């Protein structure tokens, strides 16, 4: 068993944004081709802690470099109030020959960066011929920080940012980080380039209308906003999935990663399906757009909303990359006696 900790993962992923976007795109293509097995994620909830949850995402991604395993990720929003990260994650990879666990990997960065890579890919595809020069970030946490970093790596012309958070102090602190005014930021895992053009919006409507690209990454459990103030044809990365009202979803072009996965667990698209009894408001999946088996022909002025549920095969693709790089470089900790002796017939026969 190879155990790969946070610092090793951080070092292996540093500066690899465009490469990770490519890995995520390849995983989406393979998934759309039917080269994956992806059971529905399992949500563990607690009767006395309704805000908290732990999610299990098992999966298999086939093709030239197959991988199987599980991501186990906890979301505890209250952690933020005590200065800790909201989410924590672990990823287990299994041998496809024996089924034995092969690696145990700290997964918080993998989870955040596969989300950011997916968002940057969605922004690229939905923007079409346009090249956004600014983005509005609604929700000032780790995910939107990562999304901004990946957006800037994929599009160097993006130089303006407007931020909004329901906690004004949090938005101000985030702006200070982006402008290089936060000394503690030097110790951060993954830094975004400092920006001069950073604004703090006074309300969510002001943020939505600030730029033609919007990224929503909050901890909202129920719809609380619309896109009435958005610019015509705005591209909206609806990463947290539960922010937009049903009417907003139905009034927009909608791209998802997988309809069967996103239309559950009371996401905004799920609520739209429940209200209408249909799912034809979903225009395409991102895998089909990448493969050219679907096309998106936006109506002028209508928002384009990307709602990625977050497929476990993305985590596995990045975890496989981390595992292979760590093994190649001799990084991580190998635990030889993790499995029972009978798991290794060679050792047993000695």
TrEMBL record:
Protein's GO biological process: siderophore biosynthetic process
Gene3D superfamilies recorded: NAD(P)-binding Rossmann-like Domain (3.40.50.720), ornithine cyclodeaminase, domain 1 (3.30.1780.10)
Pfam family, one: OCD_Mu_crystall
GO cellular component: cytoplasm
Signal peptide (from-to): none
SUPFAM superfamilies for this protein: NAD(P)-binding Rossmann-fold domains
Coiled-coil annotated spans: none
GO molecular function annotation: oxidoreductase activity, acting on the CH-NH2 group of donors, NAD or NADP as acceptor
Name listed for the protein in its UniProt record: 2,3-diaminopropionate biosynthesis protein SbnB
Source species of the chain: Phytohabitans rumicis
């Amino acid at each position: 068993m190879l155990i790969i900790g946070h610092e090793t993962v951080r070092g292996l992923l540093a500066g690899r944004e465009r490469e990770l976007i490519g890995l995520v795109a390849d995983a989406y293509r393979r998934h759309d081709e039917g080269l994956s097995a992806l059971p529905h994620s399992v949500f563990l909830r607690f009767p006395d802690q309704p805000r908290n949850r732990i999610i299990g995402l098992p999966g298999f991604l086939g093709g030239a470099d197959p991988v199987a395993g599980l991501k186990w990720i906890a979301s505890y929003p209250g952690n933020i109030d005590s200065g800790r990260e909201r989410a924590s994650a672990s990823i287990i990879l299994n041998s496809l020959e024996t089924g034995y666990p092969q690696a145990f990997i700290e997964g918080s960065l993998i989870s955040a960066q596969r989300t950011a890579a997916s968002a940057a890919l969605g922004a690229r595809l939905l923007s079409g011929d346009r090249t956004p020069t600014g983005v509005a970030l609604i929700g000032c946490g780790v995910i939107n920080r990562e999304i901004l970093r990946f957006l800037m790596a994929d599009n160097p012309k993006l130089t303006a940012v407007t931020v909004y958070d329901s906690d004004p102090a949090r938005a101000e602190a985030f702006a200070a980080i982006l402008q290089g005014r936060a000394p503690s930021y030097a110790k951060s895992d993954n830094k975004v380039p400092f920006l001069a053009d950073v604004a703090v919006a006074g309300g969510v409507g002001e943020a939505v209308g600030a730029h033609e690209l919007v990224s929503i990454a909050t901890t909202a459990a129920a719809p609380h906003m619309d896109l009435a103030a958005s610019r015509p044809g705005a591209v909206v990365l609806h990463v947290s999935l539960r922010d937009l009202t049903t009417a907003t979803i139905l009034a927009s072009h909608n791209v998802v990663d997988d309809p069967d996965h996103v239309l559950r667990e009371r996401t905004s698209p799920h609520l739209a399906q429940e209200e209408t009894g249909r799912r034809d408001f979903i225009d395409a999946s991102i895998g089909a757009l990448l493969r050219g088996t679907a096309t998106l022909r936006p109506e002028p002025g209508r928002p384009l909303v990307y709602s990625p549920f977050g497929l476990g095969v993305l985590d596995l693709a990045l975890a496989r990359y981390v595992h292979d790089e760590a093994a190649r470089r001799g990084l991580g900790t190998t635990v030889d006696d993790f499995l029972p002796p009978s798991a290794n017939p060679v050792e047993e026969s000695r």
